[in-house]
């Protein structure tokens, strides 16, 4: 009888230890631009294998994510596709400039359905019925797209033909489904689909630089682990993933 009770005691103690271990495991929350989705899932797998730290992602338009964070959303690390929204959080004191860095760059391209034979330059857009871009106020790619169209003096011609999207992935889906004739997305997003093709690249001086800043929130629940993930995002292994998917290193 005593032996049975002792065995039960060991089982109970072991069960408590396992539960405590699960409770103590770290799960970072990272809000990141939608265009980073494929790269970050790959990098997170490598990071978790090396450190045991898990990461939960919240992807979306950088402007929408910024608003969520400003309103108190529980986030450890923010990665934006635009310096504007990111710097606003620094000015609000939500992110420390000392705990932030610029990670990578990207390019903006115009895409069309793969079977399209009519659109090969931005000038060809004068004949289209619908073009999709991200909403400029909340989607950095949309802001860059508007700058390009303004630079080419096409914005006033297209304003009524534009179909706005919540993020670049939605723009991509609109072009894939041929709900629009063309769309403007990042180069990296265009590479993810075999249903679209790149019709034209933008020039760097047509829009502000496309840079992805990242920073740890001042009230991050897991600040040390967030710092570890931010460091890993700047490692050679992470950069190799980014570059393989079409992003550009900044150094």
Concise structural overview:
Belongs to the bacterial solute-binding protein ModA family. The protein has 251 residues and is α/β, with parallel strands linked by helices. The protein has two domains: 26-105 and 211-249, Periplasmic binding protein-like II (D-Maltodextrin-Binding Protein, domain 2); 108-206, 3-Layer(aba) Sandwich (D-Maltodextrin-Binding Protein, domain 2), CATH 3.40.190.
What is the top-level CATH class of the largest domain? Alpha Beta
Overall spatial form: globular
Give the percentage of residues in beta strands.
Answer: 15-25%
Characterize the quaternary organization of these chains.
Answer: single chain
Describe the structure.
By secondary structure, the chain is an alpha/beta fold. It has two domains: about 25-105 and about 210-250, Periplasmic binding protein-like II (D-Maltodextrin-Binding Protein, domain 2, 3-Layer(aba) Sandwich), CATH 3.40.190; about 110-205, D-Maltodextrin-Binding Protein, domain 2. Helix content is about 40%, strand content about 25%. It has ten helices and eleven strands. The chain has helices at about 1-25, 35-50, 60-70, 85-90, 140-150, 155-160, 170-175, 185-190, 225-235, 235-245, and strands spanning about 25-35, 55-60, 75-80, 95-105, 110-115, 130-135, 160-165, 180-185, 195-200, 210-215, 250. The relative contact order is 0.19.
Set down the secondary structure blueprint.
Elements (H helix, E strand, L loop, with lengths): L1 H23 L2 E7 L3 H15 L2 E7 L1 H9 L6 E3 L3 H9 L3 E11 L2 E6 L17 E4 L5 H12 L3 H4 L3 E4 L2 H9 L5 E5 H4 L5 E6 L9 E7 L5 H11 L2 H9 L3 E2 L2
Parallel strand pairs: 1-2, 1-3, 6-7, 6-8
Antiparallel strand pairs: 3-10, 4-10, 4-11, 5-8, 5-9
